[in-house]
Amino acid sequence: MTQKGLFNKINGNFKNKDIVSLRQFDTKSIYKLFKVTKKMADIAKHAKSSNILKGNIVTLLFYEPSSRTFGSFAAAAKQLSGHTIEIINPTDFSSVSKGETFEDTIRVFEAYCDLIVLRHPEKGAAQKAAEIAKFVPVINAGDGIGEHPTQALLDLYTIYQKFGKLNNLTGLFAGDLLNGRTVKSLLRGLSLFSNNIAYLLSPKQLKLSREDFDDFKKSGLKLIEIENKKDIPKNANFWYWTRTQKERFKNKKNYEEVKNKFIVTKKVLQDFGNKDMILMHPLPRVGEILPEVDGDKRAVYLTSEIRNGMYIRMALLSLVLGKIK
Ligand code: NCD
């Protein structure tokens, strides 16, 4: 077995690369991924059998709860005839509960498989795992309040599918912008393309950290913070609504104070939206978009956004495992 190179820029070549952050991407790599994603959608939609990942084993190592990310990675591997080792909540149900170190757990699983997908409550855990694993690539499925690159890639794909471009777009980001990792990865993704504007709507306590704000601004993204729904721009191409991240609050009273400050109802969509936009949400939602909105054709969170998650993950697994060039 050859040693892999450590997590670094993709530069159009995904083979054996760890996928830890949107920082590793450039526009060329994103478009390459989209091209493969389109092929994957064709395989999945028509239930074509594919052996692209035949013989491959993917470990899904999830230290935090997950339904979509876990389910779609498992489905992605299986659609392509790959196998999965599924470890959910190792802190309770595996040697980790006996006191095994993170380092040992990663070393053990890399011996059994060809790729590790990791979700972990600590920011930086995916990078740490990428450094520990000497032979197999690691894909970050969410590291605490850090990043969630595969969610951002499927969100970018959903936007691209609708508008045919990823530049000159105006987006609205609402909810927990301080703790939401999907928000940070998507903002970083948008900052790779030119002339994008992001309006940021959140309670004061959940504003993007100043560090992130300055960082995105430096990378060319125009950011506009607002505190009131009436300041939502009429011309937004998409709304990216998010949940208040309860598990990141030390004090539950503080959570109760800020949760669901901004809720999408039919009326909100009618008053502040426009007919060509899309309404996105990484899910799970816990009250911040009312079910009465679900049937609106602009709502994509239970339709294309979900399906694109599996297609993007099929593409990423195939590219990183070197099965598609
Ligand atoms: C997100 C996450 O885990 O960060 N969920 C997901 O993977 N789609 C969003 C969230 O939990 O709010």
Comma- or semicolon-separated keywords:
325 residues; alpha/beta; Rossmann fold; 2 domains; five-stranded parallel β-sheet; four-stranded parallel β-sheet; 11 helices; 9 strands; binds N-carbamoyl-L-aspartate
Number of strands: 9
Radius of gyration: 19 Å
Q: Provide the list of bound ligands, each named once.
A: N-carbamoyl-L-aspartate
- The total count of helices amounts to 11
What's the oligomerization state?
single chain
CATH topology of the largest domain: Rossmann fold
Number of domains: 2
Structural class by SSE content: alpha/beta
What's the helical proportion of residues?
A: 25-40%
CATH superfamily of the largest domain: Aspartate/ornithine carbamoyltransferase
State the strand order across the main sheet.
7-6-5-8-9
Distance between the termini: 20 Å
The CATH class label of the largest domain is: Alpha Beta
Strand count, sense and barrel status of the largest sheet are: 5 strands, parallel
Shape descriptor: globular
* Helix-strand pattern: HEHEHHEHEHEHEHEEHHEH
Query: What is the mean predicted local confidence, pLDDT?
Result: 95
